[in-house]
User: Which sequence fits this backbone?
């Protein structure tokens, strides 16, 4: 069956400083995750065993898959080691075939929930500079919209066409995204109440595998790094 893989980017400079949003690059630990993710993608998602009809010979060959990132540096850097070249396999009888692995695409609607005037601040700074905003968000995280920014409801709306596209895609899809974005996609596919979505735990350094079945998804989590 078709399967979705969701992961956050590797640790970013801003994650390390406790700042939200921004467009920072990865830390050395983040780069290490990027390498491990490429390995995982290769073995878990991007290969399949096929049999040559004529000769009966079977071989492990690349499996075509989609690789969707946001347009932000931290997801692009996390995806950078994942193989997206066309790979060839030559059978014993000399026939050859070509498979394209992980077709990459950077998508703006996967960009993180935009925190507007609070972008680049720590939660502590927000609490000090905008105490009322901070309190309003605690009260209603789902519909709270950052000044000049977005709410989880806004993000839910902008992700809807993408979620539908995922449902229509027959190849496996690997999404390298952000905490806020992945909470919404996860909740959508798991059939969670939208009020729960902003609190779903999506830790760094893990890949969430979702396999749709009749009434939701089967879930498996792979921790690639502590
Ligand atoms: O801290 C990482 C981050 O992705 C921020 O960029 C983003 O604002 C935040 O997580 C979303 O989490 P929460 O909605 O719980 O603040």
Assistant:
């Amino acid at each position: 069956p078709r399967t979705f893989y969701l992961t956050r980017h590797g640790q970013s400079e801003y994650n390390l400083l406790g700042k939200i949003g921004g467009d920072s690059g990865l830390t050395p630990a983040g780069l290490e995750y990027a390498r491990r993710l490429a390995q995982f993608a290769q073995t878990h998602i991007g290969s399949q065993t096929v049999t040559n009809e004529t000769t009966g010979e079977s071989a492990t060959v690349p499996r075509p898959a989609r690789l969707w990132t946001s347009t932000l540096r931290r997801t692009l850097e996390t995806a950078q080691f994942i193989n997206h070249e066309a790979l060839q396999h030559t059978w014993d009888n000399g026939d050859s075939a070509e498979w394209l692995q992980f077709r990459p695409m950077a998508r703006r609607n996967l960009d993180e929930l935009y925190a507007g005037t609070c972008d680049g601040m720590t939660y502590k700074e927000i609490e000090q500079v905008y105490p009322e905003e901070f309190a309003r968000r605690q009260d209603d995280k789902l519909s709270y919209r950052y000044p000049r920014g977005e709410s989880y409801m806004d993000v839910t709306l902008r992700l809807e066409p993408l979620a539908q596209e995922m449902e229509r895609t027959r190849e496996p899809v690997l999404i390298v995204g952000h905490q806020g974005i992945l909470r919404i996609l996860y909740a959508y596919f798991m059939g969670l109440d939208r009020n729960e979505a902003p609190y779903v735990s999506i830790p760094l350094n893990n890949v969430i595998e979702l396999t749709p079945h009749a009434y939701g998804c089967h879930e498996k989590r792979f921790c690639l790094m502590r």
User: Anything to note?
Assistant: The longest strand covers residues 206-213. The two ends are 29 Å apart (CA to CA).
